[in-house]
Automatic annotation (TrEMBL):
GO MF term (any one): histone deacetylase activity, hydrolytic mechanism
Enzyme Commission identifier(s): 3.5.1.98
Subunit structure: Interacts with HDAC6.
Protein name per the record: Histone deacetylase 11
GO cellular component: histone deacetylase complex
Cell location: Nucleus
All residue ranges annotated as the Histone deacetylase domain in the record: 7-297
General function of this protein: Responsible for the deacetylation of lysine residues on the N-terminal part of the core histones (H2A, H2B, H3 and H4). Histone deacetylation gives a tag for epigenetic repression and plays an important role in transcriptional regulation, cell cycle progression and developmental events. Histone deacetylases act via the formation of large multiprotein complexes.
Alphabetical keyword list: Chromatin regulator, Hydrolase, Nucleus, Repressor, Transcription, Transcription regulation
Pfam family, one: Hist_deacetyl
Length: 318
């Protein structure tokens, strides 16, 4: 659509990751689980009908007003100038497919010990409001689905390592003791949501330009401590790559190798504690991002942290 030229945004990131993984023979079309679009009934598990109607009301009202709502939520100003049916098809439907993917990956993670959704991680969206390129609250939805539909899942830990504070899931689980939230983010950037911060059990606020050594030391210490603190049935790992050096939104200075090591630290801790882990890719839309995500997943495979033999049966219903 040319949209990506108007916004600091690699909208092809997700497909590129899949292609890199195919080139490396890690996945094939047969072994990839294709995401299904989240339907209205699914979305209503978390979202209010009023919120969903705001996204849909283009049918009844002017294109311009509705597009304005979507542009505000997605932070893609050019959306303002697109006719509405294109916004629906090119922006919201892909987000619903990614949302469905996170839910499916949650179920797979419980069954197999791990799953990665190449997409999702819309951590600024809560049940009644969107923001920061997040229109659907996929993390909240997935946790609620698992609590309601998967036997033995009654506690969840969110490890949010995107450069931004995950205020969406924080608002959704503000008073829910079943969900433990650890959040590591640049303290000076969007969204700076003081109210949502009250839901964070383990808060690690970073300074501008934080580099690998300090970052990885903090991530390792706090992930270990978080998993020791409560025994959860599932980890939702929001693996945003906007911590990368030079990212125009994140303001941190982590190297590609640092991102690979970070993901390894989190998966290794999950494995050590025998807790199923679901990873979503969240923010980070630089040209180099897709290659880094693929390299990190390949690394997880090569060090033996993701594999069909990764058995969690021994831990029973951890
Ligand atoms: Zn972010």
């Amino acid at each position: 659509m040319g949209l990506e030229k108007l916004h600091p945004f690699d909208s092809g990131k997700w497909g590129k990751v899949i292609n890199f993984l195919k080139e490396a023979n890690l996945v094939t079309d047969d072994s990839i689980v294709r995401a299904q679009e989240a339907r209205e009934d699914d979305l209503l598990v978390v979202h209010t009908r009023q919120y969903l109607n705001r996204l849909k009301k283009h049918i009844l009202e002017s294109f311009e007003e509705w597009s304005f709502v979507v542009a505000t939520i997605t932070e893609i100003p050019p959306v303002l100038f697109l006719p509405n049916f294109l916004v629906q098809r090119k922006v919201l439907r892909p987000l619903r497919i990614q949302t469905g993917g996170t839910i499916m990956a949650g179920k797979l993670a419980i069954e197999r010990g791990w799953a990665i959704n190449i997409g999702g991680g819309f951590h600024h969206c809560s049940g009644d409001r969107g923001g920061g390129f997040c229109a659907y609250a996929d993390i909240t939805l997935t946790i609620k689905f698992l609590f309601e539909r998967m036997e033995g899942v009654s506690r969840a830990t969110i490890i949010d390592l995107d450069a931004h504070q995950g205020n969406g899931h924080e608002r959704d689980f503000m008073d829910d003791k079943r969900v433990y939230i650890m959040d590591v983010y640049n303290r000076y950037i969007y969204p700076g949501d003081g109210f949502a911060k009250r839901a964070i059990s383990r808060k690690v606020e970073l300074e501008w330009g934080t580099e690998d050594a300090e970052y990885l030391q903090k991530v390792k210490a706090h992930v270990e401590a978080a998993l020791d603190e409560v025994k959860s049935d599932i980890i939702i790992y929001n693996a945003g790559t906007d911590i990368l050096y030079g990212d125009p939104l994140g303001g941190l200075a982590i190297s590609p190798q640092g991102i690979i090591e970070r993901d390894e630290i989190v998966f290794r801790a999950a494995w050590k504690h025998q807790i199923p882990i679901l990873m979503v890719t969240s923010g980070g839309y630089m040209k180099r991002t897709a290659r880094i995500i693929a390299d990190s997943i390949l690394n997880l495979y090569h060090v033996g942290l993701i594999d069909t033999d990764l058995a969690i049966e021994e831990a029973g219903s951890t």
